Amino acid sequence: MNAYVWDPTPEFTEHGNIAAFCRRHGIDGGYRALQARSAADPPWFWERALPDIGIVWHTPPTRVCDDTGGIAFTRWFPGGRTNLVDSCLHRHRRQGRGQAPALRWEREDGSRGVLTYDEVAARSARVAGGLRALGVVEGDRVAGYLPPGPEAFVLLFACAHLGAVLVPLFSGFGAEAIAVRLVDAGAKVLVTAAAVTRHGRRHDMETVARTALEKATCVRRLVVVPEEPGAPRDSAESWPSRAGDVSQDEPTAPPGPTTTSWHRLADAEPAETVSLPADAPFLLLHTSGTTGRPKGAIHTHGGFPAQVGSETRYNLDLRPDDVACWVTDPGWIMFPLVAAGATLAGASVLAYEGAIDHPDVTRLWRLLDDHRVTVFGSSPSLSRMLMGRDPQHPAAPSRLRLLASTGEPWTEAAWRWYFADFGGKRCPVINICGGTEVGGSLLASAPTLPQSPCGFSGPCLGVDAAIEDDQGAEPPEGQVGELVVRRSWPGMTRGLWRARERFAHTYFGRRPGRWSHGDLVSRTGEEWFVHGRLDDVIKLAGKRLGPAEVEDAVVGDPAVAEAAAVGIPHPVKGEALWCFAVPAAGRTLGAPEAERIRARVADALGAAFRPGRVVAVPELPRTRNGKVMRRLIRSLVTGEAPGDLSTLVNPACLDAIRTALQDQ
Fold first, then answer.
1. At what angle do helices 591-605 and 547-555 cross, to 10 degrees?
2. Of 266, 458, 463, 651, which has the fewest CB atoms closer than 10 Å, so is most exposed?
3. Helix, strand or coil for residue 560?
């Protein structure tokens, strides 16, 4: 049996969005009964969920879905016409809530502001008009290379207004990574910030963007958000030209794409909100594999808001008086997910631009209290960082009622810190698991069910997911298999950009008729647990092991702050287990500690899983959103090509790991 540490309260079981939906549609048995019904008959669920979520149809769809083309090419909401701007913004204005806050923002220097639904709608319409004046028409791709803040938020809705396709780019990308994605998308316009500040240091983004455009010759227009220290950059009236800013009619523009300033777009004549087919593309988000060029996942005006609206309404229980904050970047799926999901709910989004621990680790607590945040989400890595930095952290943020997480598997110690120390034991932890190609999540927790550390309540509503072994059978309880989906869901990518065959091969090649997600998952009772990626699975003498189990045992040692477990080729066993450990503050990891850690893992998992080596390293390679890149560690040991490095946020750690491998 699972050891539950949180029991649901009447706030969720009686007054929450799930309870209201179940009452309205006569579902006895709460979330579990609804989950089963929605998985058995997804069209039944989505037909009833869409009006509850707030999807606005200009022309209603002729049916919920058409799956005659099979799971890979299911059409959602055929015949329907919509625009997510109507659902996310205009609907609330028509209901008299135009003055309600839609976006709260704060930068590292302390500047902050609020935009209402009326203001976001007006500004995004003007920016859409500015893009139209630059020649952007329906279906054109507009790339955003921006930090989290008002410009990224407004650009998302501006592109939707116009029917353009937004191509988000991670604000920490280098020029080569940007160029590859711009060329793949065939982007016509690139919007960038002049600079961003992190940890008190200025990072030049405009120069990086211009370098990328030397290769991405498809881009004809560069739009630059001016750098104005101390000025409220979200206001069109406060965006005068600065030295170096030019527009398409200024002869001093440098070679390359024509340049204009963001304030010129924001002062343009507003564009009308266009009506689009439900399957019209809205987002083109790239996800990187271990090899090959990045894959461009396509999300639509109909499917994307339906999926994220369901998750934010039922799993995150978002309501109009909520303030939602997620530590993410505009280049990752969570930024548009929270932007669209929170505004569908009529709630407010808090966007923070800068380092979350600057000038000290208590910045996050002050940020959440100052903006009265009620729903907060982050990656498990953030918890591991914070719990190891300062044990004298402030009390739990006063307004929090729900915590959330995604990005990678939890270790139990980090989950318990997040739940107890950060959340004060009063908030459920809503784990969600999905990805860029999913357009949301496949697994999630529900706030109406009891929770044990690291667990999920199972598949999201309307998602027919299962766990399968290599033969396609469900493994016994507690044993690991692969997460698969047996029917399409609204958020599933409509394909990969200009790569139909690659799409079918990547997600359906290994298991015909099934979406192969690549996550290692197990089930204990009614809770599901994620153990890592299939690419990270460790195979020791015929036994399969997820890295999370090993890492949980390693970080249980008081001398360890973080850990990564990888499988290294072995002539007899097939693979040997190696552990890479980051010392806790003020601790060292020498030979005695390494032997103690090896014994801990053997005690926890069995003698067959005793690590062959424990290597102390100063940090682990990771992406900005917190995922540990275990494949890079493995490549340093084996000498194999590391593959795509564009999402690596701390490249200097690779040299440190090489040195540790040589010295220990």
1. 130
2. 651
3. strand
Which is it for the CA torsion 653, 563, 366, 102, positive or negative?
A: positive
Residue 247, pLDDT above cutoff 70:
no
The predicted pLDDT at position 136 comes to: 97
Q: Whole-model pTM?
A: 0.85
If 0-12 CB within 10 Å is exposed, 13-18 middle and 19+ buried, where does residue 85 land? buried
Q: Give 442-488 pLDDT, tens digit per residue.
A: 999 999 999 999 999 999 999 999 999 989 999 999 988 999 999 99
Sign for the CA dihedral angle at 603, 605, 608, 612 comes to: negative
Residues 6 or more apart from 583 whose CB is under 8 A from it?
559, 560, 561, 589, 616
Going from the C-alpha of 339 to that of each of 94, 178, 186, 247, 626, the distances in angstroms are: 19, 23, 25, 30, 20
Q: What is the pLDDT of residues 331-344, one digit of tens each?
A: 999 999 999 999 99
Please report where in the chains the tokens 């926890």 appear, as a residue. 604
The Cα 624–Cα 619 span in angstroms is 14
Cβ(600)–Cβ(553) under 8 Å?
Answer: yes
Q: How far apart are CA 489 and CA 468, in angstroms?
A: 19
User: Residue 241 pLDDT more than 90?
Assistant: no
What distance in Å separates the CA atoms of residue 458 and residue 489, rounded to the nearest whole number?
15
At residue 574, the pLDDT reads 75
What is the CB neighbour count within 10 angstroms for residue 134?
20
Residue 77 neighbours by CB under 8 Å, 6+ apart: 61, 64, 65, 278, 279, 302, 303, 306, 490
How much is the CA Rg of the chain, to the nearest whole Å? 24
- The verdict on whether omega for the bond into residue 359 sits within 30 degrees of 0, i.e. cis, is yes
Task: Determine how many CB atoms are found less than 10 A away from the CB of residue 471.
Answer: 7
Which helix (DSSP H) or strand (DSSP E) does residue 652 occupy? helix 652-663
Query: What span, in angstroms and rounded, lies between the C-alpha atoms of 399 and 401?
Result: 6
Distance from C-alpha of 313 to C-alpha of 340, rounded to nearest angstrom: 11
What is the maximum alpha-carbon separation in the chain? 72
Given a contact cutoff of 8 angstroms between Cβ atoms, the answer to whether 609 and 578 are in contact is no
* Highest mean pLDDT: which range of 113-127, 555-569, 623-637: 113-127
H-type alpha helices, 352-428: 363-370, 380-387, 412-416
